[in-house]
TrEMBL record:
It comes from Halomonas salipaludis. Belongs to the LysR transcriptional regulatory family. This is LysR family transcriptional regulator. CDD domains: PBP2_GcdR_TrpI_HvrB_AmpR_like (cd08432). GO terms for molecular function: DNA-binding transcription factor activity; sequence-specific DNA binding. Keywords: DNA-binding, Transcription, Transcription regulation. The keyword Transcription applies. GO terms for biological process: DNA-templated transcription.
Amino acid sequence: MKIERLPLNALRAFAEAARTESFKSAASRLGVTPGAVSRQIKQLEERLGISLFARHANGVQLNEAGRQLAKDIDSGLERIAAGVMAARRHAHQAPLLTLSAPPSFMQLWLLPRLAEFDATLGGLDISLDASQSLTTPAWQGDGARLAIRYGRGPWPEAQSHRMFDDELFPVCAPSLLAHYERSMQPADLANHRLLEVAWESQQGISFPGWRAWLDAAGVGDKVAPPQHRHSLFSMALDQAIAGRGIMLANHPIAMDRLDSGVLVRPFGERHVLASPLTYDLLTPPRGEAPPAVARFIDWLLDEAAAFDRDTHGNARR
């Protein structure tokens, strides 16, 4: 006899009666009469071809077959309950998105904007990895592993979505400009400490430094090379905010600080060096993004497009 052919109401009546060895108590818990419980259990016994209770004038008592069946039913109910709980957890658990990005970009550009995503869209458990390593993107169930990279494509084993191009310009604390009675000129950099980021991607591409900017501004022979180098943009940025030098920065790293006024551009919109590097979002080359991840990708690219419009005056997506 297959278990799926047994009457479920009869199994339920038996399970309740087995716990207390009382048809009356089982009837009370099930909201039926003791006679109904007795008939359901009798039906079950007939299906199984065995007796489950020893019946006495003053009540019933489980026999050995009844005790074994009650044990098996309890075990099955525990497994069913565990399955239901697991299904509920899965239904309410947000998909996991693992996103890696360069440390300074994550700190200075991405993190301040993630709160808006959580507030407006949400639905994702986001794990952030401050890393520039060339991790291969992948779909993972209803989540994903994605990457933001700063460098120069093509990117292996990934589909690339351009966030924005890059350009470099000097930034400094407003106090450094206070003693100038005229507009600061590139040659004046000879009187200041130049802060440089000694960054190199895993592609072997170096961040364009002061030397390239000075040459482009026509003062490469008048200003000495920088003596203060940092491995992270955020470190150099902190030094510039403190008035300890002039940093060669880019929009994603410096724009929020420029907007707040703690940094200024000593040459205004002049003397901007186009960079060969770009910021790109990398997704798996094949397959379709799960819905929650697709919402995040759309949001991130929209944020990048809005940022690009604010900084360059046009959208490049």
